Amino acid sequence: MEESKQQNQEIIDETNEENQTADEEAEVVEESSELEQLREEKEEAQNRLLRLQADYDNFRRRTQKEREADRKYRSQSLVEELIPVMDNFERALQVEVDGDASQKFVEGIKMVYQQFHSALEKEGVEEIASQGEEFDPHLHQAVMQVEDENFGSNIVVEELQKGYRLNDRVIRPAMVKVNQ
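Above: the chain sequence. Below: its structure as tokens.
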């Protein structure tokens, strides 16, 4: 009997050891799956962080470009208002005058015109070259077509109204006559 108790005890011990081993293996598998899950969560969080950082960098670059464009074209509305004034100055200077007093008056107008012109240039306003140039629909507005043997095809023959651009943006295209 003693022997059978001992055998039963051994069987119980073996069973307990097997159960304990199985429990330990289950714990290892469970810990391994938890570890894998934590790794996946960490990787997902890192990916979200990288995307968020990229979005922020894009936002920063976009706002910087917008600020630069605002700075570059801040005077556009003022320039659009002043261009007709330039046209009127140029028309006034084309009038021929007689007499010493009239001549002095015209010289004063020329000085004001030059100051006005240089102030616009400082802001980045420049005239669009047109006469003798090839017609460019982005810079010129063709209002007439003529046939002139002295000019090649699609060349601007005459400028009817000056065109202006602010930095690289066309404010007003030049009105021109174009050779066919």
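Residues 73-179 form a domain with the Nucleotide Exchange Factor Grpe; Chain A, domain 2 fold (CATH 2.30.22.10).
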